Known about the structure:
By secondary structure, this protein is of the alpha+beta class.
Amino acid sequence: NFYRILDFAFGRIAYKPLQDYCLGAICADPSSVFESDYFYCMDVNMLTSLLKRDDLGIDEVELWNNVIKWGFVQNPTLFEDPAKWTPEFTATFQQSLADCIPLIRFTLMTPAQFREKVWPFKDILPADLYDSVLWHFLMPEAQVNPFTPRLKTIDSKLITLKQAAMIASWIDQKDDKFYTYTEIPYDFTLLMRGSEDGYSTNTLHQRCGGQEKTFLLLKIKTTQEIFGMYISGIWNVTASARAHDSFMFSFSEGKETTKPVLSRVRSSGYDLALSRGMDRGMGELEMFKVSPKFGVSSTSLPLTL
Length: 305
């Protein structure tokens, strides 16, 4: 199978083209490996080859989580709570990930993601790397970002690249076969984020009102579910949708592993609507502008998330 071919080709100079092809296939669909049992058996050299790639289509915080899981599989006797580690345990885990940690692009995470997912493991990070990342978060304008972005990113706290590819697929009526991250035909530009810009419906409508093809994403505070609404027509004061290609969807607790729910408009009329007062009970809101990638012939799509 695919993994046996990769194992065979990896490290053999004569099979370098085959190795590159396999790594490229993984980068285009990372979940095929990172969500499989094969990932935990992966050789560290193969793992670092993936981490070095600019076209690895996975959110950096998710990549870090997977690397940490890989490390635990290599050290099955360690407690999963690093607060309970002895200095010897810390040194063992640090040694296991010594080649991987410098390849994680920590500044591509949000400060909140870094605090929640990386900070508990801060003792395994090189001191200069940890300080560099902290200074970047504290003074982003004054600090040179030590990491370059990967090929395709989305500045979202709510959805992953894989979920963004699903949304792009639904826009283009691809309900059964989703785009991979490299195939997404749109660029996403953040226009509004509730935790930074406030949750005023006036602000939302000022930024989005009158524009065609908009997207709204909401995170429910109590359930952590992500709800989205695509308006293919013009966004007005009530954000109503008449067009047949409008739709709603949800991700359970924002997880990729749970099958999303998609509901399309089946008949004419105001089938989708968003009224004022929506900020009650909201955990987060994001709004994006979506534009076709260079070389793709399509109408510009302002997206609200």
